[in-house]
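Tutorial handout. Part one gives the primary structure; part two gives the three-dimensional structure as tokens.
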Amino acid sequence: MKRYGVYRILIGLIVLVGVLGFSNSGVKAYSEDVHLQIDGTLLEASTFPGYVPPRIIDGRTLVPIRVISEYLGWHVEWFSETRQVLITKTEDQAVEEGFLLLTIDDTEAIVDGEPVPLDVPPTIFSDRTLVPVRFVAESFGSKVDWDDERRLVSIQSETDDADAPNAGGSGLHVTPYALRLEVTNPYELEVIRETQDNIVIKLTNAGISDELAGSFEYESGTIRTIQLRWTGANEVYLHVDLRDPLLYVIDSTTEAVLIDFAVLENVSIQEGPSGSQLTLTTNIPIPWRHFTLEDPSRIVIDLLGVGQQAQLGDQTVNNCPVLSACRLGRHREATGDSFDGTRLVLDLKKAHVPLIDEQAGANGFEIGISFGEPSISGRRIVLDPGHGGSDPGARGATGLTEKAFNLAVSLVVAEALEAAGAEVLLTRTRDEYIHIYDRPELANQAKVDAFISIHANAEIRHQASGTETYYYSNHPESRSLADLIHQQVVMALGRPDRGVRFANFAVLREAEMPAVLLETLYLTCVEDEQLLLDPATYDKVADAILIALKQFFAQR
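Part two.
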């Protein structure tokens, strides 16, 4: 049973998982139904997401470098421009100490600086790099056997690997972003503790080898230390101490307990009949957010709680009509960043809005990004400045009333939308009271494309701050519009993100089109109120709503 962690748990330096979408043009005749076993463990797609079985090509067995490098602790770097794979034993090993360089579709390898011929070249299959198993494994001291009857290739790793103390089939296998603890009996699993740097799991009747009693330390990677502690004949406590906060998944199968830490595995950019398409692949489903910036035009995508493969630096963008650059960076709150995770920045050649789709892919969790033309020309929008007249709404410490702010910012938003070609209707243009039901009725009568009610928030204890956005199930696209406006406003104002929320507000419920109520900031918070008093904030809100509407209508 798979279990998603409540806390964001860390991953460190990462090994190559995939490559940037090349075809398998170098593949000749191949044979399927070949199995792979490492240190006594049979590898399967069910236990290793994205696993591609070995292939026999021209009489030689090729295996996915991703899997064997993860399992044996090797470090792999992928060079997309030259289509080369560099393999060293550890991430911090100097290249001159021993390395293996392979080039896709090339029958010559470089071993410690010397050219060595290959019987069969590395190739790409199903977006995975396959390498000749015997040549690669034996180059690093591992033993390779072939069982023709079972069609099984077996790799036995070295037994003196200090950073993999349990290599050799003893039941504990650690890679830079995963842990696998083998069991032999039907067992019960209970998560005892989850914090930002520690997981404790109780296993009952799991049949774990007593060779694993004690502690193991790791110099790099997600995991700092692992301890297995027996408290009774059938009870084992698994303690996992971590370095940085990242998302994780605990998965219990009949054969093992697995912990996978969220990592961005692959970034691919393709051109097709429908235009440019960028695909991000992670090993597990992850939360994300995005926003758009202008002057210059950029799209920013934050993968929250997600680590970054060591080799996935800035991506090369060649002959892409939309993108001029694709930049990646690891963010950590502990070092002053605004979030823990990975940020992707797309530099655009001209203004576009992202059209984003997420789904479970063949090789993991995929976020697909295409690009739409940004325009709200001809769209009809109702802006609703909340409160007014005898209904002042909230009041700030300086005396600023919500009704005054709502009207002032709505007029600025209206000007920005009209300048972009939209037709804007306001429920009020002066300080007057408009009945709550008359506001959506105006929009319904005019048959507009979107309804946005603008407010400032309040809280009696004067402790809350930040931005909230509300929607109702009046229209199937209300949530989408709320998400887009919320993300843009949060990033524009830089105050706490209080989320997108469902609410049975009359102005939303009675609207017949996508409708959103935006609570920009809190009048009752000193820091928020200072921003609400600044006319520059009005421009930021206007720009954020404009960008969100461009993206919203590009998706329809």
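Part three, for discussion. The chain has four domains: 2-156, 172-261, 264-372, 380-555. Confidence is low (pLDDT under 50) at residues 6-31, 159-169.
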